[in-house]
Amino acid sequence: MRFRPLAAAILALCLIIVTACGGGVKAKTRAGLTYDEIYNTGLANDCFTVDESARGSIPLDAESSYQLTSICMHPSSVQVLVEPVNKRQEPRFVDGKILTRYTSSLDEVFGDLTVADDQITFSEKGGMDFQLVTVVIPGGEEVPFVFSSKDLIAQASGQAITTSTDFQGSYTVPSYRTSNFLDPKGRGLTTGYSSAVGLVPAGSSEELERENVKRYLEGEGTMKLSITRVDGQSGEFAGLFTASQVSDTDMGSKEPLELKIVGDFYGRVEKA
After folding, report:
1. pTM for the whole thing?
2. Per-residue confidence at 21, pLDDT binned at 50, 70, 90?
3. What is the pLDDT of residues 171-202, one digit of tens each?
4. Do residues 238 and 265 make contact, with C-beta atoms less than 8 angstroms apart?
5. Cβ count near 199 (within 10 Å)
6. Residue 55 near residue 231, CB atoms below 8 Å
7. Which residue in 156, 162, 110, 149 sits closest to 267, CA to CA?
8. In degrees rounded to 5, what are phi and psi of residue 35?
9. Side-chain half-sphere CA neighbours of 232 within 13 A
10. Average per-residue pLDDT for the chain
């Protein structure tokens, strides 16, 4: 009889472990969850996954038309290139902490997939293909940037999507601010003052001119999509992405910082 409390405690511990593991799977795949279970939890920021044991392939016919759909990219790590305090040292990448909790992922991105001359080309066409993200680096500086896959054109060799497929290409990074944005001194690109109120514009002052003259500046980034899991039956695939781009310039008034963004991605191949 005296062993019953111990057995009950062990059983309760096992139930807690099983429940926690089961919850982890649901949180990662979003499968079987209702809207109320996802709403305001951050689970919608995660991407779907493919089973880790999936090692199939998705053959592609050069005479057929395909689309990549439901592409999701979830950044898990952002590094920022910073200048050292000691001028004798080289600039180095430091880890940034992502402050944007629930809306940092790209989702439902889609585009055309073509095959020709033993080469696969993906051309991005739309979807939720950019997000405004902010990270904080050691020292407390906050670095905003636009995580994007707009106009991505990436290529890979071969005639099938396998676990050895690596897409590489470039994409457009939109401006963090729009043309109607006004800074704290009322200056903007299409609205507001042409210079800070209470200050005399000095054309010879480069710093003041950069603050006064707002510009809509787009950038370019490069991205690599490394596929590690493929489900040939469903046409799904998953893997890791690595992107290199620059941070926000506050409409030209600041020097951009170089960024390295790493995370998980998911997608699906469909016949057009």
Report:
1. 0.81
2. very low
3. 999 999 887 788 877 777 777 776 665 655 55
4. yes
5. 11
6. no
7. 110
8. -60, -40
9. 10
10. 85
